[in-house]
Design a protein that fits this description.
This protein is mainly alpha-helical and about 400 residues long. The chain has one domain. The protein has helices at about 5, 20-45, 55-80, 85-105, 110-135, 140-155, 165-175, 180-205, 215-235, 240-260, 260-270, 275-280, 285-310, 320-330, 345-365, 370-395, and strands spanning about 160, 175, 240, 315. Strands 1-4 form a two-stranded antiparallel ribbon. The protein has a two-stranded antiparallel sheet with strand order 2-3. The protein is globular and about 65 Å long. The two termini are about 20 Å apart. The relative contact order is 0.19. Mean pLDDT is about 85; it is low at about 1-20.
């Protein structure tokens, strides 16, 4: 976590230095990682070590991937004070489009997959139009979308399941990159990330933002090293699943957009103070419209992946409550519901935490309604801790 990242989207108070804000942000990150480690340790003991076996970690990664993709778009929208309640239904409709084209009509996957993703982008653009041009709140627009997207998917299939997808589509969602190439990619990514962080922190040191480069670099790299070690453990079984690589590519792309582009800075500015953003010359309606188009892209990707994983389109149940899981992952990962603050990587950790609870309790044969209760309690505690942390940071100003 860089000092620059810790203050993105929020104007620092004159009485608080960037170093203090960075320490507060780092504390939140390490608390989240510590909670995740404690959960993993508990389930490892409770399941006699089964939870931390490479095979189960691969299953956990695959189970978490769908929520992770949806959580990325949730962060993009919540940062601008918008919400999307239609994710699950939109994903189901994308799955129907894919299944009808590639299954029923025997269209080539090279055409069917892009067409399904484009259909998701059209859904996002449709909702963005009502929000930015007509002026209806995102809550109402996406609530309506949650109803009629699901309805359209049921109408198109007459409530039946379409389960005849071509092998190339299903193979991507279930296949693995071999262990050796997987390890090379993991170590290469870690080295590249380390070099980037060193360059950024060295620049920050020259500007006087940080005093000790070595300690700042160690703090920045610690989560990445832990993630790389977990990834290597997962890869030791059959390699890295293609689906996990897809999540990584999407997350890195979204993180670059949000943290390294002018458009991303505009999103944080809009969420932090819409009026100040407008006065500074930002076209708020245009930025939010394209934000929903990007969310539609993730509808498409998530819908294709989910349909491929289950081997067909199940309009009535596909993506059910996915929007709630995505929002929960984003909030647990540190995204502020008030806008202006949030990170894609934090949302991925939040999704992994929620997935770990589900996976661990399933291994312990805990009834599903207890699992829902535990997830709800974790979400409430995460929001409460974040609120208390922000209140404490304001108290020292």
């Amino acid at each position: 976590m860089s000092d620059q990242d810790s203050v993105a989207g929020k104007a620092p108070d004159a009485t608080i230095g960037p170093g203090h804000l960075a320490r507060l942000s780092a504390l939140r990150d390490y608390m989240l990682i510590g909670i995740l480690a404690a959960i993993w340790l508990f389930f490892s003991i409770a399941t006699d070590g089964i939870f931390l076996t490479p095979r189960n970690l691969v299953l956990l990664a695959l189970q978490t991937s769908i929520v992770s993709l949806a959580a990325i778009s949730a962060v993009l929208l919540i940062v601008t004070r918008n919400f999307d309640l239609s994710v699950g239904s939109a994903v189901a409709l994308v799955g129907v489009v894919l299944a009808v084209l590639a299954g029923s009509l025997d269209v080539s996957p090279l055409i069917a997959v892009p067409a399904a993703i484009f259909a998701g982008m059209l859904m996002g653009a449709w909702q963005g139009y009502w929000i930015t041009k007509v002026g209806v709140s995102s809550f109402i627009v996406t609530l309506a979308g949650m109803l009629y997207f699901r309805g359209f998917s049921m109408i198109a299939t007459n409530g039946a399941t379409i389960a005849s997808l071509p092998r190339p589509i299903t193979k991507f969602a279930t296949g693995f990159l071999p262990p050796v190439p997987s390890a090379v990619i993991i170590l290469g990514a870690l080295l590249a990330y380390g070099a980037l962080r060193w360059f950024e922190l060295e620049r920050a040191r020259q500007l006087g933002v940080i005093a000790n480069l070595q300690s700042a670099l160690m703090r920045a790299l610690a989560p990445a090293v832990i993630a790389a070690a977990a990834a290597l453990l997962i890869a030791s079984w059959q390699g890295i699943p293609y689906l996990v690589l897809l999540v990584a590519v999407c997350a890195i792309g979204a993180e670059i957009v949000m943290r390294r582009t002018r458009y991303g800075a505009q999103l944080y500015a809009i969420g932090g103070n819409p009026e100040a953003a407008r006065l500074s010359g930002i076209n708020i309606k245009r930025a939010i419209f394209w934000n929903f188009v990007i969310a539609g892209f993730f509808y498409g990707v998530t819908g294709v992946v989910l349909t491929a994983r289950v081997g067909g389109a199940v309009a009535g149940s596909a993506g059910l409550f996915l929007e709630l899981d995505a929002i929960a992952a984003a909030v647990i990962g540190g995204t502020a519901l008030s806008g202006g603050r949030g990170r894609v990587l934090g949302a991925l950790v939040g999704a992994l935490l929620m997935g770990s609870l589900n996976n661990g309790m399933s291994l312990m044969n805990v009834a599903p309604f207890y699992q829902d209760t535990a997830r709800g309690v974790v979400l409430l505690l995460a929001v409460a801790l974040d609120h208390l942390g922000r209140r404490s940071s304001r108290a020292v100003r």
